[in-house]
Design a protein that fits this description.
Layout: H1 5-19, H2 25-31, H3 37-62, H4 68-82, H5 89-100, H6 105-110, H7 116-131, H8 134-140, H9 147-161, H10 171-194, H11 198-227, H12 244-248
Length: about 250
């Protein structure tokens, strides 16, 4: 039976309440000041792979959209990450964070040290958006519904617990507090408008669940490799490498 608009929105929000990665032990460790400098660096390196893939995901989505109004609305997402003449963009802001934690931004942007599981998860998301219906692709982006809360907690936790944290190094998160509400308001309304059958509602809910799994699996990989000792897979970043100090030497 097709749910009412309000009931379906509540169903989507419950997915985030149950499954969003703000509940992952790694985030509790990070936000509470329990991460070592190398664990923070590992997070920055691996999260960069997700950040740099988001514009490619959005470009793949737009390449399939025939409605110019939808393309026009979606275009700002790419500009938010890639930047414009007046906006440095989220990717550059993330590399500023990398530099603040002592990493060589060139090393981070090379993605050489990214965990295999991170690559598999993020690449699966890009492929999902490229291959699934437009409704499923937009629904998968609705993890942004839950992002402002985690950004606020992260900003507060990092400022309280880590010397590298300041307005400059955390500018990515500060900026997303302004950008994400606009994106999610449009995306949520679009999904609620277009998921007008039970089959479509179920597909949209499944897509959002998939995206929460993508985010959760990245933190599982980080926790296994860098919190539980001795489990860094071959080819992944090794502490002591990719640092600004090493480049200077």
């Amino acid at each position: 039976m097709t749910q009412s608009r309000d009931a379906f929105e509540a169903r989507l929000r419950q997915i985030g309440a149950d499954r969003y990665h703000d509940k992952h032990p790694f985030h509790h460790l990070l936000h509470g000041g329990g991460c070592t400098p190398d664990q923070v660096r590992a997070w920055v390196i691996n999260r960069y792979y997700y950040q740099h893939s988001i514009p490619m995901k959005d470009a793949a989505f737009m390449s399939r959209v025939e409605d110019p109004d939808l393309r026009r609305q979606w275009r700002s997402r790419i500009e938010d990450h890639d930047g414009t003449e007046t906006n440095p963009g989220g990717i550059r802001r993330w590399l500023k964070l990398a530099e603040a934690v002592g990493l060589d931004p060139e090393y981070v942007s090379s993605t050489e040290g990214v965990l295999p599981a991170t690559k598999f998860a993020v690449d699966a998301y890009v492929r999902f958006v490229r291959e699934k219906t437009l409704l499923e692709a937009v629904a998968a982006s609705l993890t942004e519904l839950f992002a402002p809360a985690i950004h606020k907690n992260r900003i507060a936790g990092l400022l309280q617990n880590y010397d590298f944290a300041d307005d400059s190094s955390l500018s990515y998160f500060q900026n997303r507090l302004k950008e994400a509400p606009k994106d999610v308001a449009f995306g949520l309304a679009w999904v609620l408008d277009h998921a007008d059958t039970q089959e479509k509602q179920d597909a949209a809910a499944k897509a959002l669940t998939f995206k929460t799994d993508v985010l959760w699996s990245q933190l599982d990989a980080l926790h296994a490799a860098y919190v539980e000792p001795g489990r860094i897979p071959p080819g992944a970043w090794q502490p002591g490498t990719g640092l600004l100090d090493a480049k200077a030497a």
